[in-house]
Amino acid sequence: MLSLAEGERKRREEREKEMVSGSGICAKRVVVDARNHMLGRLASILAKELLNGQKVVVVRCEEICMSGGLVRQKMKYMRFLRKRMNTKPSHGPIHFRAPAKILWRTIRGYVFIFYGGCQGSFGRMKKGMSFF
């Protein structure tokens, strides 16, 4: 009977080591497989996790789904590519083409929605994100 209680206590201690101060945040990085996830929904969830202090690694970003037809998405992206600064285009909007960077930019947008445009909040979170 005593050994059962000791075993349960050891298991509980091991679980607490994996968590950061009992906050529900895992001390290690959480690996997210982005395959077949919707871009906006995934970005909003990841932004909230990052704001809570969780470290996240996203894999298979090239297989993220976007709602709508292929032609519509391509037209929308071409409209986005035409946006630039008139006086010096190199200062204008930077258009990322890599799927990981598109997800990164979407997460950045959600961070400002959740934080209300707080400056420097996204800079603190860059260390916790990895994309492959």
Automatic annotation (TrEMBL):
GO biological process: negative regulation of translation; translation
GO CC list: cytosolic large ribosomal subunit
Keyword Ribosomal protein included in the entry's annotation: yes
Keyword DNA-binding: no
UniProt GO MF annotations: mRNA binding; structural constituent of ribosome
Keyword line: Ribonucleoprotein, Ribosomal protein
CDD domains assigned to the protein according to its UniProt record, in alphabetical order: Ribosomal_L13 (cd00392)
Superkingdom, natural source: Eukaryota
Pfam families assigned to the protein according to its UniProt record, in alphabetical order: Ribosomal_L13 (PF00572)
Record-stated family: Belongs to the universal ribosomal protein uL13 family.
Name the UniProt record assigns to this protein: Ribosomal protein L13, eukaryotic/archaeal
Annotated source species: Corchorus olitorius
